[in-house]
């Protein structure tokens, strides 16, 4: 990573420190003005709504980033996200907003209802919106980075688990855990790779609302954020002089009540998730198959089905009959979605399904063959007439005559076409007679 003594050097998204990741996690909380346009400076937009955030962007060497897209449905579903781009490298980042008002759990019922759905069955309206937002704005060669805090961290994990081959890095802070029971083996492996970076601040409660399927970096709390949910704040993370988070060696030291609440929350939510695993797994299957087909990736579905079968076989809490039913459900789903995909996007398939009867006019096939035979006879007649010119042509005309003669010889390609048409007509008529005899 380049040396940044003054913190003003432009930094690519591939070389961020924890301090810069924190700034980009905050970015989703800024209410960007309605008049934004793609390509505008993020720094200048932030300066209009949050001068402190603008100053942090500049100090972190992120002043060069430009906005690509912004969605704020806080008043509807609660979903909010911003996509930005590095004009020099072409890298694209996306930051997802978390739940607001943590000190009052009833502050925003929409967010809390979405959190409950996500934790229990593993999917929610916001998670689907996040996946759609990513697929709209992703850098197609895969230079994509995801950021998110709290609920936003869970949304980033959802997007990554569904599109992990198109993402180079995920940096989330105090994330609500993604439901692990819905995930296939490939998704679990992706979440445990080095591309996925989850930071949890000492004393945070939200990060333990369920079982966590990825490793976390447990870091020290700087003690600046008061209240029971103070450790959940992005600003509670302690950084060293280089801008890296300080690793915590004694989890929940100084935060005994949060530690007790976290232990209970993990046990309770983990138990709920375990009991609802079949439902969450089935729903995740629907989302993933639909995602593959919509993005025209049917070749990946076959490998995906094998992953699902492996995951289903590990469900020891359900009977063999239930496991068999789940596998059959997966097969039926893939077949059904494939059919819808082909009907929507494959013109040849649409025609074939609209015209299931094969109609072959063998008379026309033989007629075409006769026409080609007539053409060949005419070519043959011209060829014989040209042969008679050899005796009359002078030496100077002989070369031109030879070249012309090459083009008028009887065409073997036409003969092959004649043979194919007649043979095809014979084959169809033979099959038709056999079918009629069996009726």
Keywords for this structure?
439 residues, alpha/beta, Rossmann fold, seven-stranded mixed β-sheet, 15 helices, 7 strands, 52% helix, elongated, disordered N terminus
Describe this entry's structure for a reader.
The chain is α/β, with parallel strands linked by helices. The chain has three domains: 13-275, Rossmann fold, CATH 3.40.50; 283-354; 362-438. Helix content is 52%, strand content 9%. The chain contains 15 helices and seven strands. Strands 1-2-3-4-5-6-7 form a seven-stranded mixed sheet, sandwiched between helices. Strand 2 (79-85) and strand 3 (92-96) form a beta hairpin. Helix 13 (362-387) packs antiparallel against helix 15. The N and C termini lie far apart (77 Å).
Question: What does the main sheet amount to?
Answer: 7 strands, mixed
Q: Please, what is the average pLDDT?
A: 78
- Tell me which CATH architecture of the largest domain applies here: 3-Layer(aba) Sandwich
The Cα radius of gyration reads: 33 Å
Q: Any idea of the CATH topology of the largest domain?
A: Rossmann fold
Low-pLDDT runs of 5+ residues are 1-7
- Helix-and-strand structural type: alpha/beta
Number of helices: 15
CATH class of the largest domain: Alpha Beta
Gap between N and C termini: 77 Å
Count of distinct structural domains = 3
Total DSSP E strands: 7
Query: Strand order, biggest sheet?
Result: 1-2-3-4-5-6-7
| Apparent shape | elongated
The sequence of SSEs as H and E is HHHEEEHHEHEHEEHHHHHHHH
Helix content: 40-55%
- Proportion of residues in extended strands: 5-15%
